[in-house]
Amino acid sequence: MATEFRVAICQPALIYGGRLRVILGMIAAWNDLGVVPDVVTADLRIDPAGVAQRYGLNLQANYRTLPPGVRLPGELAILAFNRQFKQLARDYDLLINTGNSLFGLPPEANVLTYLFYPRRDRVESDAISIHQPELPLRTLSRAGVERRLARSLYRRVQLQSQHRLICMTEFTRTALVKRYGTGHDARVIYPPVDMASFQPGGDVKQRQV
After folding, report:
1. Total domain count for the chain?
2. What's this model's pTM, rounded to 2 decimal places?
3. Where are the beta strands (DSSP E) in the chain?
4. Angstrom distance (rounded) from CA 199 to CA 209
5. Residue 2 confidence (pLDDT) above 60
6. Which of 48, 51, 57, 81 gets the highest tally of CB atoms within 10 A of its CB?
């Protein structure tokens, strides 16, 4: 399988779940084009060798874990990961950003972002998390300080017109426009979801597709 066109799918932390399933769909698409992409991460929490058995997919990809640097918490780790995009751009013809953060994307690089939901909208919230919207984040807590710092950095970000951006849903695109004032024309491509297995009702956290 030819690998002349160098592609990197960049994800800060790689864990089992819906986002990995989307990334596997991207790998499959590139394999169909004769390309074996790299999956670049700072935190590999899956077994690449077991992916085929777990998901029933026969895919070809190289998993590249970036050298460990200073360990940072949550939001700051994501920002630090994106800061490495400029260096990564030297090794690849295309960077695919799946980490939801639009911070630090080098303007001179070919970047395609698949946005599940804008990270900036998360850090602008005063709630502990989207799972606990009724609980306010304490201002002087570590997470509170971390989020204020992240906000100050995200508010300086401007979308680069030369970069391509795809949103997972219309809801995603609405949040993108809300925070950046642009992105109205971003294409929406829904993830590979098997709706036949969806069971409505019951506990929301137990619903799976």
Report:
1. 1
2. 0.86
3. 7-10, 13-14, 38-41, 43-44, 62-65, 94-97, 111-115, 127-129, 132-136, 164-167, 187-188
4. 8
5. no
6. 81
